[in-house]
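tool_call: predict_structure(chain=1)
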Amino acid sequence: MFWLRLPIPLHKTPITYSTPNTTISSNSNHYSHQNYLPYSSKPVTKRSTISMVVKHEVNGESFSELEPLPGELKAELMPKHVAVIMDGNGRWAKMKGLPVSTGHVAGMDSFKRMLELCSCWGIKVLTIFAFSSDNWKRPKVEVDFLFDLLERLIHSQIENWKRKGIKVSVIGDTSKLPISLQRIITSAEENTKKNSKFQLIMAVNYGGKLDVVQACKRVVKKVKDELILLEDIDENILEKELETNCTEFPYPDLLIRTSGELRVSNFLLWQLAYTEFFFHKKLWPDFGKDEFTEALISFQHRRKRHGR
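tool_result:
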C-alpha cells in the first residue's frame, strides 16, 4: 500500500540565504557548507525555546530525550529498522536556481535531522542510500563533491556519534572510493563498533544486485572449500553472506523514498522482500519531522500479513 501526498507548490523566485558570515543568492555559484542556512522565504528571527526531557519506553528500553515521541505514534509499534532513499537534492536546488551542490548540502542537513529523530524515538537501525553503484554516471565534479561532503560529515560527527551510542557501519564496495574517504570510514567503524543504542548503516557505492551476486560467490567458495554441502544451501545460508549481516536487524521494516519516484533503484533488493513502502512527493531537503511522522503513522496503521 502506497501513501502519496500532494506536493507543496514551489515558486521559482529569487532566493537569498543569509548568515552572519555569508550570503548565498539564487544567482551565485558559491556556497559555504559550514555557514549554510536552510531555505526560508521570511527573515529568520531567533526565538527562545523550552526543552522538556521526555521519558518513554520502547522494546523494554527507557529513553530520556529532548525530542519527544509525537502523540500520534505508539512506541510499541515503532519499526526497528528504517531505510531511506534520499531522492531529490539536485531537483530541489535547480528549482530554486541554485547549484546542485547546494541541494546536497541541504539534503545532508535533512539526514542529520532524521538520524536524531530515529535515535530519540527508539528506532534501532537507520540505513541510508548515500551513493549508489549507478551514481558513477553522474558528472565527475558532482561525484567528487558528494564524496567530499560525506567525508566532512563523518569527520565532524564521529565524536558526537560515539557520545550518543551510535554505531556506524558502511556497506558497498568501498575499495573504489577515494583513499581519504576509505580511511575516515574505517576510523568511524572502529571508533563506534562497541556502541549499541542505535546503528547507522550508510550504503556507499552499493547495489542490491551486486550484494546478492557477491553473497552467492561467498557461498560457492564455502562449498568448494568443503565448509558446507551443496544440499545445505538455503535462504539462511545466503542471507548471512549479504552485506547487511553487520546488523541484528538486517531487514528494513519501512522503506521511505522521497521526490515522488515509485521504485527501489537497486537498493537492498533481497532485504526488502517484506518491507512496507512509503513514497512522498516532497524532495529530500524538504522532508522533515512532520513528513517522517506521517510515514511512521502510515506504517503503524498497516496490517503486516507476510503471506498469511
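agent: Helices lie at 89-95, 100-120, 140-163, 179-192, 208-224, 235-239, 289-300. Proceeding to next step.
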